[in-house]
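Subject: Protein record for review, amino acid sequence with backbone structure tokens
Why sent: The fold of this protein is of interest and is recorded here as tokens.
Notation: Tokens come from a learned vocabulary of local backbone shapes, not from coordinates.
Attached in line: The record itself begins immediately under this heading.
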Amino acid sequence: MYYPVFLDLRGSKVLVVGAGKVALRKVKGLLEAGARVTVVSPDADPEFATLDLEWKARCFDWDDVQDQVLVYTATNDRAVNRAVAEAARARGVWVNVADAPEECSFLVPSRLTRGDLQVAVSSSGRDPRLSMALRKQIEDLLDATGDQGLSR
């Protein structure tokens, strides 16, 4: 069982290892939350060049997790993802491993944001499609009621 929490990441250092489509979604959310994001990857999706972040164009090194508040790994290489998770845990840094909830110390829920309203849905990593479907149903419900959030 996981404990749900919303984090204030404004100004916090967050590391993302990997720079494909999955990492891009995570990075965009982190930047929206005000995190100071560093991406480590030998190459990156071209959209990363448009984002306000630090990119280290190289392979992951254990020292990359030092001084980070959170670490995300989203590469297509299981050995790299596992090494990132081990390095983060060894330094007491919370880590999220894309597509491997058993290696995570925290999970990222399916999230809906409308103004000041945020709704997060999680299946504890067991069924991400169900979480996304429920989030979509909530979104449709808000659309049907005309509710745009709490910023009134």
The chain has three helices and seven strands. The two ends are 35 Å apart (CA to CA). The chain has a mean pLDDT of 92. Strands lie at 13-17, 36-40, 54-56, 70-73, 94-97, 110-114, 117-121.
